[in-house]
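User: Hi! I'm working on a homework problem where we have to compare a predicted structure to a textbook description. Could you give me the structure for the chain below?
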Amino acid sequence: MSTTEPDALLGPADIRELAEALGVRPTKQRGQNFVIDGNTVRKIVRTAAVRADDVVVEIGPGLGSLTLALLEAADRVTAVEIDDVLAGALPATIEARMPSRADRFALVHSDAMRVTELPGPPPTALVANLPYNVAVPVLLHMLEHFPTIERTLVMVQAEVADRLAAGPGNKVYGVPSVKANWYADVKRAGAIGRSVFWPAPNVDSGLVALVRRAEPVKTTASRLEVFAVVDAAFAQRRKTLRAALAGWAGSAPAAEAALVAAGVSPQARGESLTVEEFARIAESKPGSKAESKGAGA
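Assistant: Happy to help. Predicted structure tokens:
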């Protein structure tokens, strides 16, 4: 059962005092913008629908603002932090501000892109304020390697949020949109103003909610085969798929044959296709194992 301790969350003065004590200056290189508003981190936890039985993984906890709010609501929290100083300080912050929940917290000092296993029970939720420069690769990496993550809520740059949540036909629909949709149903879940961060970023932020698909995309093609089609289609997004997929298929005529076999117009563009249609194209690649399986079915 979750426990709330008086004044456990970090406020603006606490953040700055802690940062000064640690000699921490937020760096653009790591996209560090610390949340300094307790109402905002609690809003994130509410929007994420964190339950008392959830095992939450958090990426880039920083000084611990969101971490503390997650510990109030979840069964346990595992935080992944790459920064040496921040990783070294976080356990002490948890112990000092929320001692009754300290045994429900674990720290992994690592680059999130290298993490393929976590201590304790498998995570059921991912909640994070993701650095803008690595948000999409980190999100996709975690969804790939931790299939037990059912629900995700990430705070990212508003532009990235729009791309992740975009559907076919939207002008910002692209590689992140399709790949995220391979794993989950994705939607925009709110906006976050600049003033709740220190330092205040030059861009607005948005929340994106992802609920893992109850059933995977039905296809005989592998994830890597489908993603190869997606990458090729959007590498030259203004070209028709017949032209854009020529390199992938071996030639423009081969690409056209694969598209026709998949029931997709060779004159269409990638921005109009669903993830299921990309999967059908992958299945139809000339000489692919998926095509052979389909032919023998």
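For your comparison, note the following. The mean pLDDT is 92. DSSP finds 13 helices and nine strands in the chain. Good luck with the assignment!
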